[in-house]
Structure formats: structure tokens, C-alpha cells
Amino acid sequence: MFRSSAPRTHRAAGPAVIDYRGLTAPVGRTVGGLAVVGAVTATASLQAMGSADAATTPAPTHPATTAPTSPLAGATAATAAKSLAPAAYSNVKLRYGARGSAVSELQRRLRSHGSGIAVDGVFGSKTLSAVKSFQRSAGIGVDGVVGPKTWNALGSSASTGSSSSSQPKLRSGSRGTAVSTLQKQLNKHGAGISVDGVFGSKTLSSVKAFQRAAGISADGVVGPNTWSKLSSSSATIGGSGSSSGSFNGQSIIAKARSVKGTKYTWGGSSPSTGFDCSGLVKYAYNANGITVPRTAKQQTFAGRIIPQSQAQPGDLVAFTGNDYGHIGIYVGNNQIIDASGSQQKVVERTIWSDPHVFVTYR
């Protein structure tokens, strides 16, 4: 676990609270501004923004009351939007509820990265989910808002089309022909899953099982390294598309219990140096052949978030405060093992009242 604030006590009175709000709540409906390229009149600028910036307020349908003052002033919003170079979209901020040609360009780029969404120019719930999925896979802030960082990571639809169409980055929730290709490749390695173009739980389990068998990071994200191994490695999954044979929750718990009482050290990940919360998770999981990222937030989103009713011993409990700032190993019966900053050691204790979610790598 890495953080800039001092460790704080997580205990609080009251029943445990499961927090799923931040995972699905819309981020709002307003749209940021666009820096219009070139010298144009105020009227032409507004027209370009009406389409390229995808504002949610419809443009007025009545004619202008003043005569155009430049050749561009009388251009339609669609014409102005078409004049934008691909790089200009990096200045367009989009979010849920936006509409227009910039949204269509966003959807085309998302499709080139493996999303199966329609290109309809409407930033609805499916586009929001695709944006968040891409942001997670790209390692940038997962807020559903498309600003310069997201545009830059997406690249241009023209330049990414040829390379990403054959090897797009895929993760849980992706849909389309690229997922079907992935499923066929996994079946060649013994997965035995349906080829339906939907990256669901069985495909996720198969990906992680293959990644472990191929000796690469088992994060469930299909990037260049995984695509390469699917083509070149002889690693086999072992059938049924399930990694449950590689996931032994009791063995993970036993490994964590073996270091109970070890001192808390911020950034620590071994008995000799001490542990922080994510360091303990990495230590126990790695000892059982499961590769996880280093920080608590990364460990949360590299796994699969599940309801408490599906949680099993060995799964993780991630506390959502401080931007997913704490994590522990679920023991069962509302208990976890974690490296506690407040108690300054590895402890086994009851889950407290801070909002949290359950995460599995099964």
C-alpha cells in the first residue's frame, strides 16, 4: 500500500458497510470546453463546439440574427466538426450524457481497443462502461471522463485500427470479435469455453489460468504479452476454463497466518522487512502461484469485484476510503487478516464499519 497520508485507525462502531456506489454511479452530465483550432469568429467557434464538444444542450434552430463576419461563420456545426484534425479531439472533454461527432470518434477508438459498443454519437451507459474499462486497462484514472489523458491513451482511430484490431487490449466486460478470437485461442490451450464474444467470468478465469501457466502476470488483462504467449506458448490451462484448481483459499490464509504479528512497514512485503496491507496480500498470493499487482487499488481492480454472498476464504476485502487505500485477506465469518497500520502489525480481526468491497482472483 502506498499513500501520502499518515496511517489512520480504520475501526469504527457499527455494522459492516458494503460500498458498491463508486463502481457504477454516473459521473455527471456537464461537458468541458474545446480550444478551437485556427482563427475563426465567435459564431464559428460556437458552431464547432456545438458538435465537436458534444454539448448536451441542443443548438438553437432559429437563424442567426446577424450576418456572418467570416467565411467560416455560416458553416454548419457538422462542417465545423469535420474540419477538426484528429489531434484536436485531445482538447475535447466528454462525459456521460454528451452527444455529437466527438462522441462518435471516441466510440470508434474504443472499438479499435476491443469494445463492442455501437458508434451512435451518444455517450450512454454502455459507452461509460467501455470508457472506465479502457481507463483501468490503460492504468489511468478511472472516472469515466474522457480528457487529454484518455484521448492520448486511446490514440487515433486511424492509427490504432490496424494494430489493435488484431491485438487489442481486452479485460472483463469487453465484447466483440476480438473477444471471440481470444476465446478461440484460449480453447487451443485447453480452456473449453464458449466462443460468444463476451468477456465474462469463465473467460476471465481462463485468461488468468493461462497467464499463470505461461509464467506471466495473472491479472486477467489481455495485452501484448498475453497475445504473444497465446500465439507462441505451449502452456495448457487444464480444461473447463476454471482456475479454481490453482486457487487454494485455505493455503493463502495459512501463508498469511504464518506471519501474524510481523511488524507493519509502509512498503514492506516480506517477513524480514515487515508488511503493509498490499504487501501482505502479494506475499500470500505469490506463495500460492497467483501474481497480483503491488498496491491496494491495483489489486482491487485487477481482480473481480463480487457481492459478499459470493465471497470465499482467500478472497480479498478492499476498503474504498482514501481511494481504495487498504486491503486484507478474507478468512470467512466476517474476519480478515491484514497488515494493520493502526496496530502496527499483521493481525486477524473482524471487518469494521468502513465501506468495503469483496474481490476475487478465482
UniProtKB/TrEMBL annotation:
List keywords of the entry alphabetically: Hydrolase, Protease, Thiol protease
Query: Which superkingdom, per the lineage?
Result: Bacteria
Stretches the record annotates as Disordered: 155-178
Q: Which residue ranges does the record assign to the NlpC/P60 domain?
A: 246-362
Q: Name the residue ranges with Low complexity bias.
A: 155-166
Per the UniProt record, the source organism is Brachybacterium halotolerans
Tell me yes or no: is Hydrolase among this UniProt entry's keywords. yes
User: Is Hydrolase tagged as a keyword?
Assistant: yes
User: What is this protein identified as?
Assistant: Peptidoglycan-binding protein
- One Pfam match, given by its short name, reads NLPC_P60
Q: Which family does it belong to?
A: Belongs to the peptidase C40 family.
Q: What PROSITE patterns does the database record attribute to this sequence?
A: NLPC_P60
Q: Which InterPro entries match?
A: NLP_P60_dom, Papain-like_cys_pep_sf, Peptidase_C40, Peptidoglycan-bd-like, PGBD-like_sf, PGBDSf
User: Which Gene3D superfamilies does the UniProt entry name for this protein?
Assistant: endopeptidase domain like (from Nostoc punctiforme), PGBD-like superfamily/PGBD
Q: Which residues form a coiled coil?
A: none
